[in-house]
Amino acid sequence: MFSGSKKDLVGIDIGSRAVKVVRLREVKGLWHLQAIGMASLPQEAIVDNAIMDSSAVIDVVKSLHTNLRIGTKNVVTSISGHSVIIRKIQMPIMTEEELENSIVFEAEQYIPFDITEVFLDFHIIGSDVNDPTMMNVFLVAAKKDFVNDHIAIFRECGLTPMVMDIDSLAVQNAFELNYAVDENVVIGLVNMGAGGMNVSVLKDGASIFTRDIQIGGNILNEEIQKQFGLGSADAERAKLGQEIPGIEQQAIEEVLLSATEMLAQEVQRSLDFFTATAADDKIQHLYITGGIAQLPQIRHALENRLGIDVEIIDPFRQIVVNEKDFEIEYLKSIGPMFAVAVGLAMRRVGDKND
């Protein structure tokens, strides 16, 4: 959404439950992993994507950056949630400069916020297949106070935010690096975070649909807590399949099954909306990422509802990793939690998404 002038950046993803940091370096067309780290956030430090406890978030970000010994202070981060609006709109064919001059007027028709209270950006998708005189554009608006809260976190840490991205676009970056998809194949991407989910649809390497869903993996923990009267720590252990004294595993499985069905239903609704508004495009494959993507119940629920194959994204699949510096098996185990951070770490000032 905005950018500075430095090229050496580190990706920092501030999620609802943890902060993830990735630093990559591009050498002769290949990306090399330089640093990676993750640290948990206190409960309710982030609520509905909004920063509620800035001091706690600052402490975690600063500690991670220091412990990983990352030289650069220039960072790229991302946002999502109800303070961010993404709309696909149609406009007459024009240059990027002409669009820059007219975007504010166009945005007023689509953005439910006061136009003076948002940062605006856009991305030209391309000409419309049904009308060559028109082009499709992604319009992005983010509330200024929401963006400024995130910027303030990094500045308090002594860091400089150079690029502000959108979570769903960062996941798309990571996916396109690691997976080759045939032309005309329509695929879905779902980033399943703790506090919410981002749904995107890609065709020919371009995003043609995106939507944020305001429920996520936290619902699993909440249902377990509610059904069994557990605290947050025990609910997390139960979700991950660990034994909880006095509670049968089968009972926990039933609660998880019900909660994952709710999440799968929300994803299905978003994809059904895309199908209803798209001409002949049908999603042929779904890729998922995020912490809860690793739960087998999630994948099975989505496959049963959608009737298509569902695959977990490996964001390190095509990244060069030095086995002397990083444990390969550990990277595989944490991979689904790092798609956003990897996509951010690939960003450079002045690249295609600015």
Architecture blueprint of SSEs:
Blueprint: E1 10-14, E2 18-27, E3 30-40, E4 46-47, E5 50-51, H1 54-67, E6 74-79, E7 84-92, H2 96-107, E8 118-127, E9 134-143, H3 144-156, E10 160-166, H4 167-178, E11 186-192, E12 197-203, E13 206-213, H5 218-228, H6 232-239, H7 249-277, E14 285-289, H8 296-306, E15 309-312, H9 328-334, H10 339-345
Parallel strand pairs: 1-6, 6-10, 11-14, 14-15
Antiparallel strand pairs: 1-2, 2-3, 4-5, 7-9, 8-9, 11-12, 12-13
Overview of the structural elements:
The structure is a single chain. 35% of the residues lie in helices and 29% in strands. With 354 residues, it is of the alpha/beta class. It has two domains: 1-81 and 145-179 and 313-354, Nucleotidyltransferase, domain 5 (2-Layer Sandwich), CATH 3.30.420; 180-312, Nucleotidyltransferase, domain 5. The chain has a five-stranded mixed sheet with strand order 3-2-1-6-10. The chain has a five-stranded mixed sheet with strand order 13-12-11-14-15, with helices on both faces. The protein is globular, with a radius of gyration of 20 Å.
